[in-house]
């Protein structure tokens, strides 16, 4: 199973990926998680990405494309993968198409998660993320609280708000989604791969995604 989860910031890509990883025994490749990990570890990639991420801007295409090219070659991708947060521009989509052709593999599906923008700002304001960069589990104070307030159920790490979660930065990220990422909907419709699933209720959204994947 190889799929792309497409959707605005806070549309539920990470939350739904966590379920699919368990259900289909595939890996989640989240460019956001990879970048946050790199920033926290102070690697060369982290230094390149940090300022863009703090502003809520997209990291340059060449940096992201290089990350995915290396990641897809890793052994654990052989069983299938979810691309969460990639591609986000037409240039990234074209690069991915070439990469997959070179590896002689194809995508099964591109699923767009649809959520009204006014709900997104609220969800992100209430999101908490595990600060342990090898975990980064996602919670929500309202809709998915941890068992102990401020502590990750999985690894016991401290739950934090991300630096890009202020209203101003979320609005900036939403604008980027409208301008640069939403054209991918038409792109993947033309490729015959696109389906849309509404994420108003998490259980229903997961069921909707699985219905698409199971044909
Ligand atoms: P990234 O980490 O990818 O951020 P994002 O796409 O903006 O997505 P989010 O992680 O904010 O949200 P999500 O869709 O995963 O939603 P979640 O499941 O958490 O990227 C961060 C930054 O990295 C970018 O801004 C950019 O700088 C850089 N970057 C990354 N990839 C890049 C690329 N390809 N090119 C260039 N730059 C790149 O859900 C949100 C909240 O809602 C959670 O609290 C969850 O519990 C809750 N929730 C989910 N569904 C429901 C529901 N149905 N009901 C109630 N609550 C719900």
Describe the SSE topology.
Layout lengths: L1 E6 L5 H12 L2 E4 H11 L2 H12 L5 H12 L8 E4 L5 H13 L6 E6 L2 H9 L1 E4 L7 E3 L18 E2 L6 H15 L1 H8 L3 E5 L3 H12 L2
Parallel strand pairs: 1-3, 1-4, 2-3, 4-8
Antiparallel strand pairs: 5-6, 5-7
The structure holds BIS(adenosine)-5'-pentaphosphate.
Describe the structure.
This protein has 215 residues and is of the alpha/beta class. 48% of the residues lie in helices and 16% in strands. It has 9 helices and 8 strands. The protein has helices at 13-24, 31-41, 44-55, 61-72, 90-102, 117-125, 167-181, 183-190, 202-213, and strands at 2-7, 27-30, 81-84, 109-114, 127-130, 138-140, 159-160, 194-198. The chain is globular, with a radius of gyration of 16 Å. The mean pLDDT is 95. The structure holds BIS(adenosine)-5'-pentaphosphate (AP5). BIS(adenosine)-5'-pentaphosphate (AP5) is lined by residues 7, 9-15, 31-32, 35, 52-53, 56-59, 64, 85-86, 88, 92, 123, 127, 138, 140, 143-144, 164, 173, 199-202, 205.
Strand residue percentage: 15-25%
Task: Indicate the percent of residues in helices.
Answer: 40-55%
Main sheet: which strands, in order across? 2-3-1-4-8
Low-pLDDT segments, ≥5 res:
none
Kindly report how far apart the N and C termini lie. 12 Å
Radius of gyration: 16 Å
Largest sheet entry: 5 strands, parallel
Number of helices: 9
H/E element sequence = EHEHHHEHEHEEEHHEH
The overall strand count is 8
Query: Rough shape?
Result: globular
**Which ligands does the model contain, each kind named once?**
BIS(adenosine)-5'-pentaphosphate
Structural class by SSE content: alpha/beta
The averaged pLDDT comes out at 95
